[in-house]
From TrEMBL:
GO molecular-function terms, A-Z: ATP binding; protein serine/threonine kinase activity
GO-annotated biological processes: defense response; response to other organism
Gene3D superfamilies associated with the record: Phosphorylase Kinase, domain 1, Ribonuclease Inhibitor, Transferase(Phosphotransferase) domain 1
Entries under Pfam families matching the protein: LRR_1, LRR_8, Pkinase
UniProt protein name: non-specific serine/threonine protein kinase
SUPFAM superfamilies noted in UniProt: L domain-like, Protein kinase-like (PK-like)
Residues that hold ATP according to the record: K360
């Protein structure tokens, strides 16, 4: 539930408040229409949270000057926060969290001086925290966590003297912790973890007598732990460069043993006399308990396997308790949801060790269906045996009657689909990075088709299922529809996949082969160099109209055309492989092994100018793609 639920206006209410002439309906998959926003000038509260609203926040939202509460959280909104939002001067609550918003926080946010709650967390906001945020002196809660904010923490934040909660974690903030934070005398909870903050921890808490929870972990802080922190009940300073001694005045954490009148020898002797018999007794007791627990565990595991209850979760630091998973996601709260697919929702979770993971949890109703249970088990069965550098890593899984989820390696930069549709992020993907992404997908599919026994067909290769890590390296994910191709089971009667990526023959033959993945790969490869889904271009590739389409005209216009002969050659090769994989006849498509080998082979520089190459020339290249051993 959003923090502004008391203002709640539902989607149905929004429709009924819209004029009869407008006839505009906002569904769960639509965008925020400016024509709707601009006419709701009498609204005092607007709650559109936890839908599938997409597109940018319209600048016309600034016309809703009577709003006191605005909640657009947990949607798919993208683009920048419009500066016109600063016109909503009556707002007391603003929640834009868990979207795909990018760009800087507008300085006009400082005009919302009546705000008591501001949540912009879990977006892709970048740039510095504006100093104008110090004008929001009525704020009691500020959450800017899980973004890409950089630069120092502004000293003006010390003007927010009514703050009780401050969360700036999981950003790219640098510089020292400003001493002005010590002025926040009402602060109870503060989290500055997972940044690159430097310097000393401020020695004085000033008037921060209410501070009970402080997290400064995963930074670059140095120096000693100040004595003033000893009275904070919840304190995390892990993963820094702190030195010196641990302050001894932390009486409320651990009572100190008073040994003033004892010599060290007496203490050791007394301890041994008392502890040795106890240790021997406990050893026998532990051995007996171990035997009993082992027998009981074998019975439980046998019964669990019979009932379908399996739980095996691990990471580099040892086993993770199921309770840690639930706690890290607040029992799978929507605030931690970073994506939703056909089979379930994906959550981001930070474990007690500091490790960040991704959890794929089946939708509650779908988890009760036998077909979904089978799909989930299928994914576990395959991924526990799959080991490839370009395939998402599976850390663990849990299958039982109450909960079904997979524990994955977390990919910091999200999906290729979202990356290409964000103008700011798309330019980060230069031509060489895009070629490497296509190569990585080809190598992963070649491994699944030719190195796994039996072969594995993914069946849902799309840009949404290609994830990028912090280095913008590509990983194939989401094996929910994947299928093992046993020699005696070549037919499948259920079409799986994503619209726009499905091989055309599946519409009438329903025969699943590796060539289905090859077609989907071709779509993604073209999408990667075009910056958008190829759409109608797919139907033109084998027609005469392709003669008039130049390769340079379909490349992503947000990037400068490549001039380096090696880069040009790589892009032509990507186009050539993609067009070959998109042939309408499955048997004429190359195997992914052949595609992978072409990418691995050493190639000469390409001397023909890019502007002189048509799609037909790329399609009719000298490479012969006749099937091998089919």
């Amino acid at each position: 539930m959003g923090i502004f639920a008391r203002y709640g206006i539902t989607m149905e209410e929004l429709h009924t408040k819209t004029s009869s002439k407008q006839q505009t309906t906002l569904t769960s998959d639509t965008a925020l229409e400016p024509v709707v926003m601009g006419q709701l000038t009498n609204l005092t509260g607007l709650d559109l949270s936890s839908n599938r609203l997409s597109g940018p926040i319209p600048s016309s939202i600034g016309q809703l000057t009577n709003l006191t509460g605005l909640d657009l959280s947990s949607n798919r909104l993208s683009g920048p926060i419009p500066s016109s939002i600063g016109q909503l001067t009556n707002l007391t609550g603003l929640d834009l969290s868990s979207n795909r918003l990018s760009g800087p926080i507008p300085s006009s946010i400082g005009q919302l001086t009546n705000l008591t709650g501001l949540d912009l967390s879990s977006n892709r906001l970048s740039g510095p925290i504006p100093s104008s945020i110090g004008q929001l002196t009525n704020l009691t809660w500020l959450d800017l966590s899980s973004n890409r904010l950089s630069g120092p923490i502004p000293s003006s934040i010390g003007q927010l003297t009514n703050l009780t909660g401050l969360d700036l974690s999981s950003n790219r903030l640098t510089g020292p912790i400003p001493s002005e934070i010590g002025k926040l005398k009402r602060l109870v909870w503060m989290d500055l973890s997972v940044n690159n903050l430097q310097g000393l921890i401020p020695a004085e808490r000033g008037h921060m007598t209410q501070l009970a929870h402080l997290n400064l972990s995963h930074n670059n802080l140095s120096g000693e732990v100040p004595y003033s922190l000893c009275y904070i009940k919840g304190l995390d300073l892990s993963y820094n460069r702190l030195t010196g001694q641990i302050p001894q005045q932390r009486y409320d954490c651990l009572p100190l043993y008073e040994a003033r009148n004892w010599s060290k020898k007496k203490i050791v002797k007394f301890t041994l006399i008392i502890s040795l018999p106890i240790i021997v007794f406990l050893a026998f007791l532990a051995f007996g308990c171990f035997r009993c627990r082992k027998a009981q565990k074998n019975k439980i595991e046998a019964r669990a396997m019979k009932n379908g209850d399996i739980c095996s979760i691990w990471n580099y630091d040892g086993r993770i308790a199921y309770e840690d998973i639930v706690k890290a996601t607040d029992d799978f709260d929507i605030r931690h949801c970073i994506g939703t697919g056909g089979y379930g929702s994906v959550y981001k979770a930070q474990l007690p060790s500091g490790k960040v993971i991704a959890l794929k949890k089946l939708h509650r109703l779908e988890a009760e269906e036998p077909t979904f249970d089978k799909s989930f088990r299928n994914e576990v069965q395959m991924l526990t045996n799959v080991r490839h550098r370009n395939i998402i890593k599976l850390y663990g899984f849990c299958l039982n009657n109450k909960c079904m989820f997979l524990v994955y390696e977390y990919m910091e930069r999200g999906s290729l689909f979202c990356f290409l549709r964000n103008d700011e992020e798309a330019v980060e993907l230069g031509w060489t990075l895009r070629v490497n992404i296509v190569k990585a997908i080809a190598h992963a599919l070649s491994y699944l088709h030719h190195d796994c026994n039996p072969p594995i067909v993914h069946r849902d290769i799309s840009s949404n299922n290609i994830l990028l890590n912090s280095k913008l390296e590509a990983f194939v994910s989401d094996f929910g529809t994947a299928r093992l191709l046993h020699p005696d089971s070549s037919n499948q009667t259920i079409i799986a996949g994503t619209y726009g990526y499905i091989a055309p023959e599946l519409a009438y033959t329903m025969v699943v082969t590796e060539k289905s993945d090859a077609y989907s790969f071709g779509v993604v490869a073209l999408e990667t160099i075009m910056g958008r889904h190829p759409g109608e271009l797919l139907s033109s590739l084998e027609s005469l109209s392709a003669q008039n389409i130049m390769l340079t005209n379909v490349l992503d216009p947000r990037l400068l055309p490549p001039t380096n002969p090696i880069v040009v050659g790589n892009i032509v090769l990507v186009a050539r492989m993609a067009i070959a994989c998109l042939r309408s006849e499955p048997r004429s498509r190359p195997t992914m092994l052949r595609v992978s080998q072409e990418f691995q082979s050493c190639r000469k520089t390409f001397t023909t100018p890019l502007y002189a190459i048509s799609l037909v020339q790329a399609r009719n290249a000298e490479i012969d793609f006749h099937p091998i051993n089919e």
